[in-house]
Specification:
The chain is α/β, with parallel strands linked by helices. The chain has 17 helices and 25 strands. Strand 20 and strand 21 form a beta hairpin.
Length: about 575
């Protein structure tokens, strides 16, 4: 009877093991990671001061998104504090810190069911890193922030300092790997510049992804080359600034607004006009502009087709081209009569020169940044997509049709959509801007991919896994993105009839991320290549000849087997 009971107990224990939810793999040896998103990459909540702290998600949301943006997110810049202050005096904007900061940067609208992937931010990367052995709250953390604000706002940097300290303590005193995306790279760089001692104390590696760095030299304040009219209009502060960080998009943002969602989903999201009014008072947008003295391969310009009359009164259509330092006047004129109605009151929202002055100092802070000793910096940026660089409004035909003789530049916002002149990049940030970090980098790696889509790219995951030491593959090279495994090596030498013969055979296994169709690989024949080299003897050397054959055998699943067979013959001296 006892034996039967033992069998029953063992059977139940076996059944419990089978239905038990498997525990995620955790690697305690990993160093902690802190994820820092870019612009619009954090959930924002509005806290109502008059209702006992009632919270409402205002970014991102689908239902009543446009109304909520206008009533809760619209703001005005305060030059005394450097903050953009929400127009609603009863509202305070906060970033949720659930799941150790990861909730705010994971899925930006957690309630969305259909088309949920369009509001993913770090979601796929978080899922992937948990598979590698990272654990939320132990080795994986997030830092969300109010992306409307300046990248050097003291409050934000103070929060980042506290986050670094808390992550350091939670992981048992291990130094941190920071992974930033897009504008998050500028936030981290500002912190590194202003608080290098804290950065050095807590940070081990910083990996920047798709950051709009734009180079070492940024803004300069000076007055040479400007007319008295522009000097007066800028209140005696001339900020030489141009659309260069993500040039095409920043220019069109000031003139037309920005949409974070494309296609049919746009009808359910914040309108382009409402987003336009929000971003005009955001220091972070102004900080994505940069000095024209960065040595671009092609200087980004703003082009406008206009109809003008010569001295004889004859009309002609001309294309005006504005380099970065002259684009300011266009922005000023285009936004001179821009207003919004809030709570029954007309509020002027022109191009903001107070923010421009603040952003200038931010760029000076960025230009002084250096990687502290003991910290390693890595830069990953996207390529192979057409990326807006210069912007053109109108055309010769359209201009004539609407009679734009000395037209008001404010009509740009309503009558014309931008046409972009593109360069190589990730679709948002030109590669030329992203790789010009001005820092001492351990490596700069280009990855084919789209600006935000790169955060879900398995090519990127493989590089990160290697740099974070979450794999144990000593043969992987992130720069070339493949693994070469030496599998065999043989060499033989012998002499015969006054000649020396040397034969060599070596084999490798190459593993890459390129996944070919298995059936096609099976049918594909091996690739064979041969080479022969000979040397004519002279007084100092003997005649010799060598021949080699390389055979590549496709195996599928990103694997290839390579064989080298070589034979050399030389006169035995």
């Amino acid at each position: 009877m006892a034996m039967f009971l033992e069998d029953i107990v063992r059977s139940v224990e076996l059944w419990l093991n089978l239905i038990k939810k498997p525990q995620p793999y955790v690697d305690p040896s990993l160093d902690p990671v802190l994820l820092v998103p870019g612009i619009a990459g954090s959930i924002l909540k509005a806290v109502d001061k008059d209702s006992g702290g009632k919270e409402e998600r205002v970014w991102v949301r689908i239902l009543a998104a446009d109304y909520t943006c206008r009533t809760k997110l619209w703001s005005r810049f305060d030059p005394q504090t450097g903050r953009s202050v929400t127009l609603d005096p009863k509202t305070n904007i906060v970033v949720p810190d659930d799941r150790y900061g990861l909730h705010a940067i994971d899925v930006l609208d957690p309630d969305m069911i259909i088309g949920r992937d369009c509001v993913y931010y770090f979601h796929d990367m978080i899922v992937e890193m948990i598979k590698w052995g990272f654990q939320e709250g132990k080795t994986l953390f997030g830092f969300g922030y109010d992306f409307r604000q300046s990248n050097r706002l003291p409050e934000t940097l103070e929060c980042l300092a506290k986050k670094l300290e808390s992550v350091y303590k939670a992981s048992g005193g291990k130094k941190i790997n920071i992974i930033s995306h897009s504008m998050g790279g500028l936030l981290v760089k500002c912190f590194m510049s202003l608080h290098s001692d804290i950065f050095e104390k807590y940070v081990k590696n910083w990996i920047a992804i798709a950051a709009p760095f734009r180079g070492k030299q940024f803004y300069t304040i000076y007055s040479e080359g400007y007319s008295d009219r522009i000097l007066e209009q800028c209140s005696n502060v001339v900020c030489v600034i141009g659309p260069t960080g993500a040039p095409g998009f920043v220019t069109s943002t000031f003139l037309n607004g920005m949409s974070f969602v494309e296609g049919w989903e746009q009808n359910f999201f914040i309108s382009k006009w409402s987003m336009h009014q929000l971003l005009i008072e955001c220091p972070s947008i102004y900080e994505l502009m940069a000095c024209p003295h960065f040595h671009w391969q092609h200087v980004p310009v703003l082009e406008i087709w206009r109809e003008k009359k010569d001295n004889d009164g004859n009309s002609q259509i001309i294309l005006e081209s504005y380099p970065p330092e002259e684009s300011i006047q266009v922005f000023k004129d285009a936004l001179s009569s821009n207003t919004v109605v809030y709570d029954g009151e007309d509020l002027p929202l022109p191009f903001n020169f107070d923010i421009l002055k603040w952003a200038d100092e931010t760029q000076n802070v960025l230009s002084r940044a250096k990687v502290p000793p003991g910290v390693k910096f890595y830069n990953i940026y996207g390529i192979d997509l057409e990326t807006p660089h210069s912007v053109c409004y109108g055309s010769s035909e359209a201009t004539r049709a609407v009679a734009m003789e000395y037209f008001s530049l404010s009509s740009l916002m309503f009558k014309f959509l931008p046409k972009y002149i593109s360069v190589n990049g990730d679709g948002t940030v030109p590669a030329e801007s992203a790789k010009a970090d001005g820092l001492n980098a351990e490596a700069r790696v280009e990855v084919p991919g789209e600006h935000r889509g790169i955060l879900s790219d398995h090519h990127l995951f493989r590089i990160l896994k290697h740099w974070l030491k979450a794999d144990s593959d000593p043969f992987y090279n992130p720069i070339n993105d493949y693994v070469i495994l030496p599998t065999a090596f043989e060499i033989e030498r012998h002499k015969e009839n006054g000649f020396q013969f040397t034969s060599l055979k070596e084999e490798w296994e190459i593993i890459s991320e390129e996944q070919d169709d298995h059936d096609n690989m099976v049918n594909r024949k091996p690739f064979v290549s041969s080479i022969c080299v000979s040397q004519t003897g002279d007084d100092r050397s003997s005649p010799a000849e060598a021949c080699a054959t390389v055979t590549v055998h496709p195996h599928g699943e990103g694997k290839q087997h390579v064989e080298l067979n070589a034979l050399s013959v030389s006169v035995d001296a």
